[in-house]
Structure formats: C-alpha cells, structure tokens
Amino acid sequence: MVVSAATSVTYAQVVESWVGRVLPPSFRRRTIRWVRPSTADVRWTSVIEVNRRRLPPGEDFITFTVEWGIFVAGYPERAWGMRGGVGTARGAMAVRVPMLFTDEDVWWDVRQRRISRRGLRSERVVTEDDSEMRDLLGRLMPLADREWTIGAVVDWLEESDHKRRWGNAPTPEESVTDVLRWLDEQP
Description:
25% strand; alpha+beta; eight-stranded antiparallel beta sheet
C-alpha cells in the first residue's frame, strides 16, 4: 500500500511548520535537507535533515526525526573510506536534535492526520501546533548557524559531553575529533 494523501500532506505540513519556518534564511532547502555552507571555512557545511522512514512496509505510516549534521570535506573518505556529499547528514558527523539536548531519541509518527511523539520515556499524541521540535531547533540555531572552523568544532566537542552523542563515528581506533584534527592539518 502506498502512503495516503492525508498522511503525505500532514507530514509535509508538519515538516514545513516544525522545521522549514524555524530555520533562518542562511539555510537553503534541498528537498528534506536544509544546508548552510560556512563562510569562515569552506570545508565545513551545517546540514539539518529530516530523517524519514516508512515503517512497517505496506502501512499508511511515516516516522521521522530531525538531525543536525556537520559535513566536513574529506571526512567520509578519511573516516570510512567512502565518498560523501554535502547533501546528506549521513555523509557527515550527525546527531539527532532531540538527543543533543535531552538524551532521548525521539521520533514522530504520522498516520493519516494523526501525529504522535514516541520516545524511550513516553509516547503521546501531538498536533501540528506542538512546539517541542521548534523549541529544540531554536536551541540548536546558535550552534548550527555559527561561523565555525574545523578547529572550533573540535574544541566544542572536546569541551563538552556532546562528543559521545555524535553518530557516524569512524572506528573504535579513531574518534570523530581525531579525524577532524587530521583534516584541519591538511593544506
């Protein structure tokens, strides 16, 4: 079964209301991604991405969360030996926005016109007017819209407990900050 029009329209409205209208104009939309290249260091790009899944197969159901990624040119090649592009948070170091601030992995589900919030500690029905994601993105903007350099990202990760929350770590032998330090030393 294909996702119904009601589910698709509700999902699109929620993404636009919760994400699209919150981000500053410096972020440019590309489908379900908003990107903001840095002018301080051309190797760095901030990516806000709606991570969408349709689960389980065959049901009229979409589940999603929002991720913030920092794409650094050369990171995917150095970390995993693969080519990566700016267009995806998964080609970058990424963190789910709710986990960055609450330590809770939160996903939102859309079925027809019904929206629910699902986390480890709670589940509840919400409306399009729910402000949790808008509030979280508001807290993220001072970080995501900042003019970073690779060295500043390393310092921020090292000085906080945020390093443990970042996904897409390279290997057990090499940390996110190890790769960034190596990239920062390259001409």
